Prior knowledge:
Elements: E1 5-7, E2 17-20, E3 24-26, E4 34-43, E5 52-59, H1 78-85, H2 91-94, E6 107-112, E7 115-119, E8 122-124, E9 127-132, E10 135-140, E11 144-146, E12 150-154, E13 159-164, E14 168-170, E15 174-176, E16 185-189, E17 195-197, E18 202-216, E19 220-233, E20 237-241
Parallel strand pairs: 1-3, 2-4, 3-4, 4-5, 6-9, 7-10, 8-11, 9-12, 10-13, 11-14, 12-15, 13-16, 14-17, 15-18, 16-18, 17-18, 18-19, 19-20
Keywords: Lipoprotein
Protein name: Lipoprotein
Domain DUF7305: 92-247
Amino acid sequence: MGEALHCGGPLTGDPVTATVVGDARVRGDVSLPAFSVGGVLTVPEGHALGPVQAAEVRREPVEPLTPCACDAASQVDVSGLIARHVLDNDNAAIGLAATALEDIEGERALELPCGRFHLTRITGTGHATISIRARTALFVEDMVDLGDGLTVEVQAPGELDLFLGGSVAVAGPLRLGSTAAPSRVRVYVAGTNVLALSAGSTLAGNLYAPRAALSLSGGAEVFGSVFVRHVEASGPLRLHYDADIRDAGAECTDG
């Protein structure tokens, strides 16, 4: 982790190891096989402290840190936005059927121009490729369930806001966005379903799913940011935070 870590509970996992460049504050046991902290590690008295390397270890209280915008009133109404654009969209302008990515066998590709578009769901045993070259919003009313992977290509000056109304289960690799510009992809997920991604997946974007769990099987790499209820991984997980998302709306002006 490139900066600091604040953990509101125990830090456990086997065979997970972790490295924090800055300071780390853990409000619970630290029982990783190996934990390296470049700065100060703070753990309250009475909690277990496994094998660690730190510039300094302090035994003092760690106050809970509540992430912002977690309460229901502060969350984005993803379901409401999807429902609105089931009818209010630009599908007719490009002759796009809402069922265009249902029951996929083999390979199927979809390129979207600037606009707001609606799909019922993305399903099948095959592989889907969605290409974005402009500012695009895609509203998927129901599930994403694919047997052979999903690729979402976003090339500059393209940007994508992807709204998902159902569960996400991709058996093959999911490749979303560009690792060089993760801020160009924003994914919003409604509901509490598990987002299940397979080994070898690369998520290059900003995932907003405050009530859902992100489940990663095998090694996975995330470029951007993750706002979820819970993360679980059966293999190594690397997360590269992209600060550019803070300026994602800078080009937008009123009117």
